[in-house]
Amino acid sequence: MIPNNLFQSRVCYETMSNTFPGADGAWRNRYLLMRHGHSQANQEGRIISSPALGLTGFGLSSQGHAQLDQLLADWRWARPRRILHSDFLRTAETAERVATHFGLALTVEPRLRERHFGELEGQSDARYAEVWALDAQDPTLRQGGVEAVAEVAARMRAVIDEMEARHRDETILLVSHGDPLQILLTALEGRALSLHREREPLAPASITSL
Fold first, then answer.
1. What is the pTM of this model?
2. Alpha-carbon span 13 to 35, nearest angstrom
3. Residues 6-36: pLDDT tens digits?
């Protein structure tokens, strides 16, 4: 399977268009995968991946709000009909801004949560590199309580599979986090999950169109 990729960079967001067939060879719906806007965790350079910290704290930064202002003012994708989002504060705030803009309801979807980074919680985000190096060796590894790449891929893909079973000919926006989205895209491409960091990193407030 060879995806048709188009990458276009803008000031605060990026568009990447990919075609990934579903199980029967074609998607029933159109999907927009969105990474949350720049967050307070990004601003502080901290890993915030647990519900204990992420559900009620570390929402969008002022930069993140500005990114969403620009994104919505220059929206160039299909109008979403449904919005599902991770229940972390930064993704909930991102989804709420988009929903308000289009006059849509929101659906909380915990399976779209941030990847849990175990013992690294609250530490410097420079330590992500340690986890990614281990991911490249074994995508099923759970060292230090870190959620395995394979587990992230399974829960993320399950959301799309469920939408495919329930709906048809809709544009569905899924608001999630950087690592989970890159893992999902790697899985949909049919590439080895150990290669998920070889993809172009998804910028805050970026949208990837399937």
1. 0.89
2. 10
3. 222 233 333 333 445 555 568 999 999 999 9
